[in-house]
Amino acid sequence: MTLMLHAGAEPVDYARLRELPMPQATDTHVPIAHNAVVDMVKYSLGFYGHEIVSEDYGVTPDGARFFGVLSLRSEYGDYTDTVGLRNSHDKRFPIGISFGSRVFVCDNLAFNGDHVIRRKHTANAKRDLPGLVAEVMEPLRDQRRLQAHTFDAYRATPLSETQVHDAIMRCYRRGVINLTRIADVLQAYEEPPHDWGDQTAWRLFNATTFALNGRVAENPAATRDLHQVIDGLCEPKLLEFAN
Description:
- This protein is α+β, with helices and mostly antiparallel strands.
- The chain has two domains: 3-138, no CATH class; 146-242, no CATH class.
- It has helices at residues 14-19, 34-47, 125-137, 140-155, 161-173, 181-190, 201-212, 222-233, 235-242; strands at residues 3-4, 10-12, 52-59, 65-73, 80-88, 95-100, 104-106, 111-112, 115-119.
- It is elongated.
């Protein structure tokens, strides 16, 4: 799960979201109920054929700030795609919806994903937001298919020991991992805690994300940069799978 609650928010279920009080609107700030954001996104996901397999939500103790992650079943492999949600009633941040294979939503206000929508709480937000969500949801199936091809290319790209070491150092230089995490990545690659297959780019990708688990809050752009490093190892296969 990529919902991190360590700055004061507490986990809640959907029923609790519906019970939270709504502040009064002003001329410049028109709040939207947290559950309304969830309903809108879930409706759009269902309309375009995406199946939600899990939902995780969190709110601050005063109920003013909301964070959520929806996990989508993938028809392509043993992983899930994710949708991140964020909303506030105290003007701290705009409505946020992000989409990607690894979405990070945190109550320390980190918000990162492959495709992100941000919309201020204005009188037109309720009118415009459904259309903005639909514009992203409609091509989401093609984006998920492209991601599956990318992961297939990772699985089909064997790595030499030299390539692995070079890639780990590139991750370090780009700030994906810090100095102390180098050994963690190497250990997870050489002695995988899960079945990530043979010594391929897929195993290295998973070993790195495994080593980053719980520490992404320090660098929410780490997964994007990691993809760029792994993609560099797999260019021939990426072109082959794209065609």
